[in-house]
């Protein structure tokens, strides 16, 4: 461990100035109390507060001698030399050639711009290539101001340190790693590199996992050319054997590409939980490639493609970049030119997890994930006004292929909800919008809006299978084949912002009213809904012309949106902002009350003729407190249907935040219980360099803490220590709470030595009951 840490000292071991090439005509500026020249020895002697500036170097000493015949410079008495890069060298005396190629220094101390420090009894430079430090000490810790002789928090001592600028290496002999002045590790010889790119062994790392055992990772970096390199990391696990992880990288003038391959033959595949995605597997492999290229200043293309032999290999072994619960493979082509935008993407989704095989297990979840080949977005905004207004065009093409239907929970009526059907579908959508804002002398703003949209579908999907307890009405409407859909909209927005000014505050109040006239949405249940499933009605979409989140649904019928927007500022630094409003279905079919395969819009607050009220409020106080909230209220009883409240506070020693979230039952979405939870986090600096932190989430309905974390941090200018403990609990469901539910817990620790590296220790997914 200590050898790996100490090896990195080379990257910061600043040395005496390298051989310099001085431009012709460079002037030397010298000032001193006394200056003399000996014609016999051809020696210039400056004494008394000597200061010399030459080619970016600055030298200060009590006495400086320069011999014109030998080209040697000798400085003595509180010598200080500042390099052009900001490195400061202090010495008792200095004897170097005028090009800094050879020389001697006694009583040396070096302070670098990176705030690292080197002390040596002496140093010698040879041939402008090698610098040898004798009895050297290196640290990134700041010396104690009250007691400079006290040992720093950590340091590396070596009898001899040889820095070779040509070979770009540092060799240490008889080196010791000290903590609090006490030796904790020794290595007789070590050679490390100072180059940014040089072949060799990189810093090892340690780890622990319950199913994998203790681990040691040793990466080897190989430079293949000025434009390419590779890293081979071999990790040994006490329970599972050896993992090989290879990454290749290649840079081009207009981009880069890379490949990654990892694999292991597991020694003990039954160490994992029985029935999990990891259990019983021997050979496990992963392959990935990524690239990004600029075709020209406007166009860019790239990809990131991933494949693994099972559902959880990348996550179990924490393969960098491929260890999340969902890994997205994609390829893209993007172009931007002023107000015009084009984007082509292809997607594939891999689900990772260790859950046991079941109807909702990872394997089934992954099978229900679609291939998106491709999705194309195009947007263009007219450069010149059209009839005095702005004309914009948006288009989207989406092709989806799925091998297994994605059916979720049933709603309160027993109707199944389908997030996707088995088969394939293709949709092409295009929309034109024109709008123009007219400002009147009295401050009234009127914005007429015209829009026309068309959709073409080619549907080849299996009919959804009804659940045993009920039939989704949309199932009867669903149809295969080529289908078309159109929507035209005429709208008008009116707003009247006015300013109210008081002695110590100013306020802007803006009433807003919108009216959109359009025909009904065409048979929403007869079309698949892939990209418009997520829907939350709040003030962020209150004034949207089409409130659905994607192209697969389109809002129809005549609707009015009414509300007021407010901002206020006070001389004492307090600021306020808020929005409150409501929406009305004036005529036609309410799209949010029309069933589709996922019941998008139902129980949203918009599925009635008169919508729920929505409001938001933000408060910012100059003392470091910020409050924000979103809420939806029942249109008749004013009961809370959805609430999100967030409060934060921060000062020099304390930062904290608390969030409250509440959601009323949504029976048609399959949620029959109220959901309420409170999340809090805090970090407190209770002493110099010491902090504690934690966070927790309390489920009000389930009456328990669903997850929590607590940690302790020590942090100074050269060292950070972080240790934490976290838990995740299965609380069951309201009405069926678990008194002894499964608890997943993990502990971890990180030791970070600035300029040297990190040591990480941890365990994850350790299960107790």
TrEMBL record:
Major subcellular location class: membrane
Any Gene Ontology biological process: lipopolysaccharide transport
Matches recorded under Pfam families: LptD, LptD_2
Record carries keyword Transcription regulation: no
Residue ranges of domain LptD C-terminal in the record: 284-690
Family matches, as Gene3D superfamilies: Lipopolysaccharide (LPS) transport protein A like domain
Highest rank taxon of the organism: Bacteria
Subcellular location: Cell outer membrane
Domain LPS-assembly protein LptD central: 180-263
UniProt keywords, alphabetically: Cell outer membrane, Membrane, Signal
InterPro entries: LipoPS_assembly_LptD, LptD, LptD_2, LptD_C
GO annotation, cellular component aspect: cell outer membrane; transporter complex
Role this protein plays: Involved in the assembly of lipopolysaccharide (LPS) at the surface of the outer membrane.
Family per record: Belongs to the LptD family.
Oligomeric and partner information: Component of the lipopolysaccharide transport and assembly complex.
Name by which UniProt lists this protein: LPS-assembly protein LptD
Organism: Pararhizobium mangrovi
Lineage, top ranks: Bacteria, Pseudomonadati, Pseudomonadota, Alphaproteobacteria, Hyphomicrobiales
Gene behind the chain: lptD
